[in-house]
Design brief:
Layout: H1 3-18, H2 23-32, H3 39-54, H4 56-63, H5 70-80, H6 85-88, H7 101-109, H8 118-121, H9 129-136, H10 140-146, E1 153-157, H11 164-173, E2 177-180, E3 187-192, H12 201-204, E4 208-210, H13 213-221, E5 228-232, H14 239-247, E6 250-254, H15 265-272, E7 276-278, H16 284-287, E8 290-296, H17 309-314, H18 317-334, E9 338-348, H19 357-366, E10 370-378, E11 387-394
Bound molecules: S-adenosylmethionine (SAM).
C-alpha cells in the first residue's frame, strides 16, 4: 500500500471508532476485509489510528474543523507532522479524496500548533488539567507530552525460567531486539520485532511475559519474604501474582470479583512454572489470614492512556467518583484478610491523586491499625506507564 492509501484506510477505521466501535475491533475488522494489506501496512495504519486517538483534540483543532471525523483527524495529524495535507489528500490512485471546499477553508483558518490552548495542545480533557498538574508539578508538561506518543513495549523476564541475559539471547535468536530497562531488574524494552513476541519460543515457554516496566517495578518494590502466603485480591489475568510468584517461593492465591477474568490464569501460571490457587469470594475467609494481600484495584487507567487512548476521552467526573468508591470498598474488604503484622498493598495504573494518595489517606483515617510503610509513584517520564503503589502495615 502507498503511504496515501494507508492514511485512507486510517480515515475509514477512525470513522468507525468515532461512531463507537473499539479501536482494536475496528482495526481487526478492517484487516479481515483487506487481505491485500501486508503486516507492515497494518502496523502503519494502526500507528496512524492510535496517534489520531491519542491526539484527537489537537488534531481536530489543527484541521480547523468543529466535528471529529477520520478525515479531520488525519488532516490535523499530518499538519502536526509538518506535512501539507493536500499532498496526501490528492484523490489520485488509492489516496483519499481531495479536500472539499469546506475542509480547505477550515484548514486555511485553523490556528497554528503554537497558538493552541494548553489542554488542547497536550490532548487533555479540560477537567483533568488541574488534578494532573497538582500531581505532576514541574513534570506536568513533559509527562503529558510523553502521553501523546506511543508507549514502549516491555517484557518481564521470568526469574523462575531464566535470567535477563538468557532472555535477551533467546529473543535475539528469534529476531526480537531488546535492551534492559532501568526501571526494574527483570524488565526488557523491546526495540525491534515486537510483532513476533507472542509466537516466540521465549514467550510460549514462559521465559518472558508482556508487562509494563512500572508494573514490574511496583512488584519489585513489594517486600516479599520466602515462604509467605499471599492473596492477589483483584487478580484479573494474574499479571501481578505471576510476577510476585516468580520472585520468591510462597503460597499464592488469586481472587477476582469477576472470576471469569481469571480464566487464563491456570495456563499462564503453568507456562511460567508457578502454582497459583484461585479462590472464590466465599472461600477466602477459610484461607485467611495472609501475610500479604494485594489490591490492584480497578481505576481510570490514566497512566496507560497511551495504550488505551479512547478511555481518556470518555472518562467523566462521575465515573471517577464511582471508581473512588469502589477503591475504598475493596481496601475495606481486603484488610479483613491481612494478619496482624502483615501487609496490605494497593496499586493503580493511574496518575490521579484521587485514586492514589487520597484513597490511602481515607483508608488510614478509617482503619487506625494500619500505617503507611512505603509509597511509590511512577510517571511516563520514568519510562513506563503511570503507576502507584502504597504498602500498609497492620500493627
Ligand atoms: C486493574 S484490574 C487487575 C489487573 C491484574 N491484577 C493484572 O495484573 O493483570 C482490576 C480487577 O479488579 C476486579 N474487581 C473489581 N471489583 C472488585 C472487588 N470488589 N473485589 C475484587 N476484585 C474486584 C476486576 O474484575 C478487575 O479484574
Amino acid at each position: 500500500m502507498t503511504p496515501e492509501a494507508r492514511i485512507g484506510a486510517a480515515v475509514e477505521i477512525l470513522d468507525r471508532v468515532l461512531a463507537g466501535e473499539a479501536a482494536e475491533r475496528a482495526l481487526t475488522t478492517w484487516a479481515r476485509g483487506s487481505r491485500f494489506a501486508g503486516s507492515r501496512d497494518r502496523a502503519a495504519i494502526r500507528d496512524h489510528v492510535y496517534d489520531a486517538l491519542r491526539r484527537r483534540r489537537s488534531a481536530l483543532a489543527l484541521s480547523g474543523q468543529a466535528a471529529p471525523s477520520g478525515r479531520a483527524l488525519m488532516i490535523g495529524l499530518l499538519r502536526d507532522a509538518g506535512t501539507d495535507p493536500t499532498t496526501i489528500f490528492s484523490g489520485q490512485g488509492y489516496a483519499p479524496a481531495h479536500l472539499t471546499g469546506d475542509e480547505a477553508a477550515a484548514l486555511a483558518a485553523a490556528p497554528s500548533a503554537a497558538a493552541l490552548p494548553e489542554a488542547v495542545a497536550l490532548d487533555l480533557p479540560d477537567w483533568l488539567v488541574a488534578p494532573l498538574k497538582a500531581r505532576l508539578g514541574a513534570d506536568f508538561h513533559a509527562a503529558m507530552e510523553a502521553m501523546r506518543h506511543r508507549a514502549p513495549i516491555f517484557l518481564r523476564v521470568n526469574a523462575a525460567r531464566g535470567d535477563r541475559d538468557d532472555a535477551m539471547a533467546a529473543l535475539a535468536a528469534e529476531g526480537i531486539a531488546t535492551r534492559p530497562s532501568v526501571l526494574a531488574a527483570g524488565a526488557l524494552e523491546v526495540t525491534d520485532g515486537a510483532a513476533r513476541i507472542k509466537s516466540s519460543q521465549a514467550y510460549l515457554t514462559g521465559l518472558v511475559e508482556l508487562q509494563d516496566a512500572a508494573s514490574q517495578a511496583a512488584v519489585e518494590a513489594l517486600p516479599l519474604q520466602a515462604g509467605l502466603r499471599a492473596l492477589d485480591y483483584c487478580a484479573g489475568g494474574g499479571g501481578k501474582v505471576l510476577a510476585m510468584a516468580a520472585r520468591v517461593r510462597g503460597s499464592w492465591f488469586a481472587h477476582d470479583a469477576d472470576s471469569r477474568r481469571m480464566a487464563d490464569l491456570p495456563a499462564r501460571a503453568e507456562r511460567a512454572g508457578v502454582a497459583v490457587r484461585r479462590l472464590t469470594t466465599a472461600a477466602i475467609p477459610g484461607e485467611a489470614p495472609f501475610d500479604l494481600v494485594l489490591t490492584d484495584v480497578p481505576c481510570t487507567g490514566s497512566g496507560t492512556w497511551r495504550r488505551t487512548p479512547q478511555a481518556k476521552w470518555t472518562l467523566r467526573p462521575e465515573r471517577l467518583a464511582a471508581l473512588n468508591r469502589t477503591q475504598d470498598e475493596i481496601l475495606a474488604e481486603a484488610q479483613n484478610f491481612v494478619r496482624p503484622g502483615g501487609l496490605l498493598a494497593y496499586m493503580t495504573c493511574s496518575l490521579l491523586d484521587s485514586e492514589n494518595a487520597e484513597r490511602i489517606a481515607a483508608f488510614l483515617a478509617r482503619f487506625a491499625d494500619f500505617t503507611l510503610e512505603l509509597e511509590r509513584r511512577f510517571s511516563p517520564l520514568d519510562g513506563g506507564d503511570g503507576f502507584y503503589l502504597a504498602c500498609l502495615r497492620r500493627r
